[in-house]
Amino acid sequence: MVRIKQRYLLVEIIWKDAGVDKKLNSQIIFNSIRQSIQYHFGEFGNAKYLERLAIKYLSPLKNLTIIRCARKNLREVWSSITFLRQINTRECICRVLHTSGTILSCQKQAIKYSEDSLLITTMKLLFIQNQNQNQNQNQNQNKNQIENENQNENQNENQNQNQNQNQNQNQIENQIENQNQNQNQNQNQNQN
Prior knowledge:
The chain is an alpha+beta fold. The chain has helices spanning 26-49, 74-83, 103-191; strands spanning 6-15, 54-59, 64-70, 86-87, 90-100.
């Protein structure tokens, strides 16, 4: 007895509106792939390439699916998935991430891809948080710098005012002293 050889494709569905479709099920994806095969390869392709086609796994939250097909039809099914632009009236792009001869290998790749995407998302969030903290620090530094400049200006103004007051006071004292000296001189002259 001959064993039927199959291939498994790990496919990522990238929605144009970057959302998640929780109503998505395997029947909707199967019908979309079938329509794509029929559009690109006609009735003959539809009859030939749907031979072993099946949706084995679907995760609407992670937008991942595992599709089984006959090994001899791999290229045609792959191209039909790649040309798929719409699933259930929503625009999307389908990207084949991995192909293998066993579903276990596809599952491992799906787990690895999910972990990597989670890590990337976490890194992006940390990067954004770090940027926000840096912006807040820069804003605080700018505020502190402006406050320091204002304080320095106020101190300089106060010093200038104090100097002016001291100069004015010194001038007044000098004038009074000069007047006193003049009076003393006048008195001395009058006495002589």
